[in-house]
Specification:
The complex is a heterodimer of chains A (151) and B (504). Chain A has 151 residues and is mostly helical. Chain A contains four helices and no strands. Chain A has two domains: 59 residues; 66 residues, no CATH class. Chain B is mainly α and 504 residues long. Helices cover 72% and strands 1% of the residues of chain B. Chain B contains 22 helices and two strands. Chain B is globular and about 65 Å long. The chains are: A mainly alpha (151), B mainly alpha (504).
Chain lengths: 151, 504
């Protein structure tokens, strides 16, 4: 946690300063009638910088490394795989379409990660895709991306 | 009396078949969402918000408000039977609720929670109904300085009261406000912080952020935990949840006290059901004649906090409807929904959209009746739902996050934003930041900026305008107190050279 605080503190300090700097350079701090578009962003960036500096100093002076916050072993593996497969779905959404994407995603997680029986996996995946289609496409008329297969 | 006429108007709207159906769907889903650990009312409201876009706003809010009320009932089931809170407002119920279940008294524990919730929820709606129009009328006189001071107070109290780490809470809030600055500035027309990306011109959309933080983020936290939940074998049929007269005698006043404290806390902008339930438990233990029984299955220890969280969830609508300031993280997401439906939150809502406000109030009465029946007669059904393994539930929730984010504008961009904020939400939760403060800041950021700039334009003395007008001054001073107290404490610790290491 201490290292995470140091990294977050440094990153957010830089972000705050950059945010403030950009507000002053690109936008108007004070216009002819009153505060301009750069007024609040300038102060917000500064506030973030001050708070982040506080975090940084606190973490710097603390001796203890603090508790681990990232999981280890099986937990970490699951986290990474779930996140990876979800990111894959988002990237491929336009190519495979929502219906096929839903099925592929659920098969990947349920079968490959959790090792659930094929029959159960397919029932859930097809059921979920059908439910999605009924609610969003049929009822709410959301035009979901269709894949190269045409659905 | 126009009051009764309004209520009649409300019930006329709430009793239409479609709205009754939405209330029924809301309470059922809400109880389920409350009962399932790892998904709470905020995630539920964020995930269901996309479904409401095609509806009349009043039907949408009826479903979401019923869901919120239902989650307060449902959380108890998990606390009592598994000793894991279904959502944060039922954390404290685990203490005595689970002990009661171990002693074979799961039935009365669930029963007293359902009855207490019903009493508190209903009284909460009565008070909401009586108080809101008066508050809204008073708030009509607010100019930009009062509005800004009020928003500042809402932001600082939410931040000060959620999470254990005040510094990180304020960082979350400022980050949310920074995100709110992105996109076209209405006054000058500048495209701020858009970096030439078309999708950023409209700003950071609130819905994908909320779905990411509270939907995907929560699921990721759950995914890494390899848990195995044991549901206690217990009897919770209709006959088992009935209270004996001894139980009733002990819990009667606990319910009354829980209701009062819950409502008072819930009305405060920023303090919601979770805080209310903790305070109610503490109070109950203090006034009890047998405090030694607390922690060993005292029925008051279930009755009071469970009443308090329901009273608070009704009360949270007071600041949201009258002032446009949400009282809890869940109402913050609802407020975002209100704006997406094209309504302007604030004191004018009562005048301009009486059907919306009164339809909501009337349907809250109906929802509480539905919930009482559901939570007395159908507990076994919800317990069965708890047996759905998390491994199956988790990917289904993710699919719902993806479709929900997509359906906002039919753009994959929003799904990407959702994914990014899912990771942000995960990291924030693990490192003690406050996703609730970020969300609230993102929702009211643009409104607060406009009020601030308008105030400074009309002011002859710069920021002093916030201290020269009486109402604005009181609100500003309260907000400043909320900021300085934790700041001074943190500074003192820092100077003493032993900076606080936040608990993991």
């Amino acid at each position: 946690m201490r290292r995470a605080d140091l990294i977050a503190g440094a990153g957010l300090l830089a972000l705050g300063l950059a945010f403030s700097g950009m507000a002053l350079r690109r936008y108007t701090y004070w216009g002819p009638t009153g505060p301009g578009s750069g007024f609040l962003p300038f102060w917000l960036g500064l506030a973030m910088a001050v708070l982040a500096a506080g975090l940084l100093v606190g973490a710097w002076r603390s001796r203890e490394p603090g508790a681990r916050w990232l999981p280890e072993g099986l937990g970490l593996r699951r986290l990474v795989v779930v996140l990876g497969v979800t990111a894959g779905l988002v990237v491929l959404l336009k190519v495979v379409g929502m219906a096929v994407g839903t099925v592929l995603f659920l098969v990947a997680i349920l079968r490959l990660v959790e090792g659930i029986r094929w029959t159960t996996v397919l029932a859930i995946a097809i059921g979920a895709a059908a439910f999605n289609f009924l609610v969003f496409t049929y009822w709410l008329r959301v035009p979901f991306p269709v894949g190269v297969l045409g659905f | 009396m126009d009051f009764l006429a309004n209520l009649q108007l409300g019930f006329g709207i709430a009793f239409t078949p479609f709205n009754l159906l939405m209330a029924m769907a809301g309470v059922t889903l809400g109880t389920l969402i409350g009962a399932l650990p790892g998904i709470g009312p905020v995630s539920g409201v964020a995930l269901l918000l996309p479904l409401t876009f095609g509806m009349d706003p009043v039907s949408g809010i009826i479903m979401l408000a019923s869901l919120y009320a239902g989650s307060m009932y449902g959380g108890t089931i998990t606390s009592v039977l598994i000793n894991t809170p279904g959502e944060s407002a039922s954390v404290v119920t685990c203490i005595d609720g689970y002990q009661m279940a171990l002693q074979g008294r799961a039935g009365p524990a669930l029963g007293v929670a359902a009855i207490g919730s019903f009493v508190a929820g209903t009284v909460g709606v009565v008070l909401l109904m009586l108080m809101s129009p008066l508050l809204a009328r008073w708030a009509l006189s607010f100019g930009p300085p009062e509005t800004f001071a009020l928003m500042l107070l809402g932001l600082t109290t939410v931040t000060g009261l959620t999470g254990d780490n005040a510094l990180k809470g304020y960082m979350s809030m400022v980050f949310g406000l920074m995100l709110a600055m992105v996109g076209f500035d209405i006054i000058s027309g500048d495209a701020r912080y858009a970096f030439g990306i078309n999708e950023m011109l409209d700003g950071v959309e609130f819905l994908p952020v909320a779905i990411g933080l509270f939907g995907l983020g929560e699921v990721l936290v759950g995914a890494e935990q390899v848990t195995d939940m044991r549901i206690l074998h217990a009897r919770y049929g209709i006959r088992d949840v009935m209270l004996t007269s001894a139980d009733w005698a002990r819990s009667r006043w606990a319910i009354a006290r829980g209701t009062v404290i819950g409502f008072l806390i819930g009305v405060l902008p920023g303090a919601g059901p979770t805080i209310a339930s903790f305070l109610a438990y503490t109070l109950e233990k203090k006034v009890s004649k047998h405090p030694e029984e607390f922690g060993r299955g005292a029925i008051e220890g279930v009755a009071s906090p469970e009443s308090a969280n329901n009273a608070a969830s009704s009360a949270a609508f007071v600041p949201m409807l009258t002032l446009g300031i949400p009282g809890s993280a869940t109402t913050a997401v609802m407020l975002g929904g209100l704006m997406m439906w094209g309504l302007r939150p604030g004191p004018l809502l009562f005048e301009k959209n009486p059907d919306f406000v009164w339809g909501l109030i009337a349907s809250l009465y109906i929802a509480n009746v539905m919930l009482l029946v559901l939570n007395i007669a159908f507990i076994p059904l919800f317990v069965r739902a708890l047996r759905i393994p998390y491994e199956i539930l988790m990917p289904l929730i993710i699919i719902f996050c993806v479709t929900g984010a997509y359906s906002l504008n039919n753009k994959v961009w929003d799904v990407g934003v959702m994914l990014v904020f899912g990771v942000v939400g995960y990291v924030m939760k693990k490192l003690d930041y406050s996703p609730a403060a970020l969300t609230l800041a993102l929702v009211i950021g643009p409104l607060a900026e406009r009020a601030l700039r308008q105030s400074l334009i009309i002011s002859d003395a710069g920021p002093a305008i916030f201290l020269t007008r009486p109402i604005a001054a009181v609100l500003t001073l309260l907000a400043l107190t909320a900021v300085t107290v934790p700041a001074v404490r943190a500074l003192r610790q820092l100077l003493r050279g032993r900076a606080r290491v936040p608990a993991a």
